[in-house]
Amino acid sequence: MFVLLNTLRRLRRQIALAPGDAGSVAVRHVDAGSCNGCEHELGAAFGPHYDLGRHGINIVAAPRHADVLLVTGAVTTRMETSLRIAYAAMPEPRLVAAFGDCACGRGVLGSSEELAGAVGGLLPVDLEIPGCPPSPDVLERCLLDARVAKKDQR
Ligand code: SF4
Questions:
Q1: Cα(6) to centroid of ligand 1, in Å?
Q2: Which of 61, 69, 76, 118 could bond to 33 as cystine, CB 3.0-4.6 Å?
Q3: How far is the CA of 36 from the centre of ligand 1 (A)?
Q4: What is the pLDDT of residues 83-98, one digit of tens each?
């Protein structure tokens, strides 16, 4: 077991140091008022089949550890402040991704007085990921682009 762990650690270091490697991306997900359809796809994206973790893309629990704030759902008035707090807690450089048509402002929920509006109206959105819900393939492509963008920012 010890030998196996050492071998894995060495392999991980070699992969991380490979030329052209863009490093990892930590994603903080905030459900700002989703129907949960987008969360199903997110679950699939990070599950064993799509396994975005193999690219170094992982969900983290705290915005302080995150590179990307991934928002799902049309933002409700009750979630607006929490969303702003999560964004403010993130270190620079940071990216905001609107995941799904609702977060992009093109959702089926339309406009209601209970909604604060699309994510783009509240925070500077860097990535719009369309779909209702977007598929894990689309998310994978966008986050791999974000990984490259993160590298360019540094
Ligand atoms: S984009 Fe579609 S799946 Fe995602 S929260 Fe809106 S209605 Fe639900």
A1: 43
A2: 76
A3: 7
A4: 999 999 999 999 999 9
